[in-house]
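Quick one, probably user error.
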């Protein structure tokens, strides 16, 4: 049985002499090579740094990857971290600037490690989110429903994916966000960032 993984890509620092846009394009290719596809990729988007004022604008995208083997979520995450490292990612600061960020958002309808743990991290107040890091992988990503920079690209590749806890589709979660947040996620043209 095939599993799918939803992955968010982002970066706002140059790496190896190239702009974040090119890094994201090459990272998508690295994801394809690592997992063997098929893979569906969103458009590229320019988004303000998160949290606001924390650095240059980001380039964001999302992919839907069909996993050909019965990979565990932790195995997928290890591969994503290896790809990040190849593109100069250093994990120095939570929500800090980076050359590449690959977030495993979800794997099918998996809730991991369990509903109570997911609910705890979902309900964590914003000030605590910055200070605290989960001890392990939480799926679906407990913040994905709050972030336009995740949901807008994700709607390109998995508009009908339904959150296994919230019961909402990607489109419903995206459309529930304030318009001002959605308007800050701007599709890049073929010339890249201005």
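Nope, works fine. Designed sequence:
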């Amino acid at each position: 049985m095939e599993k799918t993984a939803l992955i968010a890509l982002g970066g706002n620092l140059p790496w190896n002499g190239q702009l974040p846009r090119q890094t994201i394009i090459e990272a998508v290719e690295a994801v394809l090579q690592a997992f063997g596809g098929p893979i569906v990729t969103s458009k590229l988007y320019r988004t303000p740094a998160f949290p606001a004022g924390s650095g240059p604008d980001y380039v964001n995208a999302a992919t839907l990857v069909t996993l050909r083997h019965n990979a565990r979520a932790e195995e997928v995450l290890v591969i994503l971290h290896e790809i990040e490292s190849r593109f100069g990612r250093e994990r120095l600061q939570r929500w800090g600037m980076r050359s590449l960020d690959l977030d495993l958002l979800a794997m099918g309808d998996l809730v991991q490690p369990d509903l109570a743990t997911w609910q705890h991290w979902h309900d964590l107040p914003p000030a605590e989110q910055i200070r605290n890091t989960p001890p392990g992988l939480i799926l679906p990503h407990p913040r994905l429903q709050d972030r336009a920079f995740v949901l807008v690209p994700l709607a390109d590749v998995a508009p009908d994916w339904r959150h296994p806890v919230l019961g909402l589709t990607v489109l419903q979660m995206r459309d529930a966000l304030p318009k001002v947040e959605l308007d800050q996620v701007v599709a890049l043209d073929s010339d890249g960032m201005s």
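The CA atoms of residues 117 and 138 lie 8 Å apart.
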